Input
Amino acid sequence: MLMANEQQVFQPTRRRGLILQAGFVLFIGSAATGAIAGAISVGAGTGFVLLLLVFLILIAMLPVFIYRFMALQSAQYILERDGLRIHWGLRLEHIPLTEIEWIRSVNETGFNLRKPPFAFPGSILGKLNHPDLGNVEFLASDDENWIMIATQSKILIISPENKNQFLVAFQRMMEMGSLTPIQSESRMPIAFVEEVFRSRAARILLISGFFLAIMGFVSTALFIPTAPLIPLGYNNLGQPLEAVPAEQLFFLPIVTSLIFAFNMLLGFYFYRKEEFRILSHMLWITSNLVSFLFILATILLGQTTL
Output
């Protein structure tokens, strides 16, 4: 039985979703690596441009699956006497007991719910408009344990692994009533990004990192017309490798952009806790330094080939 300050933590079904999303991350990462390797080997021309485009599309998809993997791994439904707390990655929903009108298994409601767009096992997330229910938001990992929560403002769909245990615990909570309802709060991931950008130091580091990543592409584009062929390294004897088309130099700003994107996301992860924010700043400083050194190297390379 739930006491005044007692919490019961329920988790969504994770195993299948984590395996599937980890598979997506590995597949996309491998495909992106193959695409950029193919672009480097094929040389200048239409093939290079197409493979580079495929690489950029795959890389743009990768953070989405990484975030969904991390969000599922840490997702929780926290049930307490004064309300329900839902944590799913950067998505946060705190619902006071007084705002919950009813809660029951979706199978018992008679409503025919379809999944939101781009939903798959482990990541049934998003919103849709139901003709009878109105706005419905999904924070679930599978469609076998769906529970519908009706509040004064919206409908939420969750999927605790122990659905029946969750419903029993909630019924007991309702019977006891609320002593001090929790504060209502609804935070979307974009709100967390806005919070980060309210810090002057974080804002400067992220904006400058983005600017330097763009300048890496610009400096490469300006350099290519001056040197059709360039060596991209040295052999064991210190001699330059065989010269290749200068278009392949685009591989370097792509790598620095990936470093910036990875460090940015990892920095966001650490920024959630005050004591780890110094790590976020270190990661963002590192990204800026790497981009700056690449731009400097491109400029120096351009001067030596003139």
About this structure: The mean pLDDT is 83. The radius of gyration is 25 Å.
